[in-house]
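YM 10:42: EXPERA domain-containing protein sequence, as discussed on the call
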Amino acid sequence: MSFNSTNVLETVKYFVEDIEDPVNVIPVVLLLLCFLWTGFPRGRHTTLAWWALFNGCIIHCWMDGVIGTTGRGPKWMVVEYGKLDARYWKTKDPTVMMVSYIEIAIMGPLCILWYRAIVKDLWWRHFMSIITSTFQLMGTFMYVGTEVYDGFKNVPLDWPPSFDSFEKVFYFWTIFVFANSIWIFVPSLIMYQTLREMNDVYNSPHSSSKKQN
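YM 10:58: structure's back
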């Protein structure tokens, strides 16, 4: 198997096309601001902090919030959004656009505040866990549910499962089904664990003695 430099260059060119668009600095700037304002993830809840940071700076504010709604960003990501779901920048479906605008205006900032609360172990950390995870669940249910209700008209449906093409396996099963399931399972798990932590805090012997006094 010979090395084909032309193919490599074409691949690199594809992935860096439109990389100079100013919107591509959004996640970098947000990450730097978070690190300067709060510091790096540390402590008992490092994984949770990374989850909040990743969602706030990359998913909500950049990918869904900017690329999905405007069609601006690295060309390969813009193309992939169009292939995944025609409701994004191609047709600007009102429901998906509203979810995306909520992501960039509310969910992104909430995640950044949540990240700070986690890293600094602030008293309102549990509140932010509940409210941010609730928004994520709501957004996922609205995004997926409306497409299910509409009969999967905008995604490469593969039902009954055939797995007969890359597009169906990747865009439907991997992205639409599996990836969206993550944003149902993880927020649900976070809410459950947060409620357990709150129960331990407010029903601990120390808090009980305070109430008696």
